Amino acid sequence: VTDPIVLALDIGGTKIAAARVSSGRVLDRREVPTPAREGPQAVVQAALDLLADWCTDAVALGVASGGVIHDGRVVLSNPKILPGWTGLDLGGIFRSATGLPVRVLNDAQAAAWGEYRYGAARGLRSVAFVTVSTGVGAGLVIDGRLVTGRTGLAGHLGHTQVDPHGEVCGCGRVGCVETVASGTALVRMAQAVFGAALDPRALFERAATGDVRGIRIVEAAVQALVQALGNLQALVDPELMILGGGIGQNPFYRACLLRALRTLPEPFRPHLGEPLLGADAGLVGAAAWATP
Ligand SMILES: [Zn+2]
After folding, report:
1. What distance in Å separates the CA atoms of residue 28 and residue 19, rounded to the nearest whole number?
2. Interatomic CA distance for residues 119 and 181, integer angstroms
3. How far is the CA of 28 from the centre of ligand 1 (A)?
4. For the chain, counts of helices (H) and of strands (E)
5. How far is the CA of 157 from the centre of ligand 1 (A)?
6. 156 C-alpha vs ligand 1 centroid, how far in Å?
7. Of 98, 123, 246, 263, which one's alpha carbon is 20 to 30 angstroms from that of 33?
8. Rounded to whole angstroms, what are the CA distances from 262 to 29, 133, 222, 258, 275?
9. CA 269-179-145 angle, 5° bins
10. Is 84 helix (H, G, I), strand (E, B) or coil?
């Protein structure tokens, strides 16, 4: 008996990835930039185009998406990252377009499930997957169960508050972790300080050469994330926290973070790990979640 093939999509603010997956192994993989500015229909179509010729031998489709996901629907998403995404019935849309059974998860929740089933957290009971990229997200597996909560909101670390006097967040709250520690926040702070558009990688390069203003921006972001990780440790006390995402895996950012983590009292200091599945964690997790 061969293991069934399950398709997976990972829809983020920057890129859409698709894969054919079997028992945690990625057999084929495709990726395109997310046409976020062209609206939700364009994003859905771009995702479907990636799956086009793969649907015939697959038994199900797992979708990982940014935003708060509940019952296949997008309950809430940051309009600055995926405009028009809130309210979409992703489960229904992809079910009718592909003819496959579909299950949908938040992207960080999917990555947490992927790392728990097939990656760095295999064999553990409790793990948090924290992703820092365009936004900040997290997924929680507690005692072997993926925790999604009453409305899918569980684990949304990026929308916990670190600054009551901070910026208004896309979610409607004030001073969320995402407004200080995300890639979007780094770009905004760099723009304010340097008066020029600077992507996070360019900012890290400046800071790495000793540019004091650059270092201050990165340290503010890192310090906010450290406090959020300390809060998460206090709430869930997972055995491992896996830090993923383009920024989370940047070596300069990671070195700053490891240094700053030492400022937390020992019981609040997470055991930090790297994603074993890399950028495929969301795809593998979504596929595992959808596997019948
Ligand atoms: Zn928020």
Report:
1. 5
2. 25
3. 35
4. 9, 12
5. 9
6. 9
7. 98
8. 38, 23, 12, 7, 21
9. 50
10. coil
Residue 124 Cα to ligand 1 midpoint, Å, equals: 30
How many other C-beta atoms lie within 10 A of the C-beta of residue 64? 32
pTM of the model: 0.94
> Separation of 123 CA from ligand 1 center, angstroms?
32
At position 70, the amino acid (one-letter code) is: H
Residues in contact with 172: Cβ distance below 8 Å, sequence separation at least 6, in sequence order = none
What pLDDT, on a 0 to 100 scale, did the predictor assign at position 71?
97
Per DSSP bridges, beta strands 272-273 and 136-142 are unpaired
Nearest Cα residue to 81 out of 213, 170, 147, 141: 170
CA of 101 to the centre of ligand 1 (A): 32
Ligand 1 centroid from CA 228, angstroms: 13
In this predicted structure, the answer to whether residue 1 has a pLDDT above a threshold of 80 is no
- Classify the phi-psi angles of 245: left when phi > 0, otherwise alpha if psi is within -120 to 50, otherwise beta: left
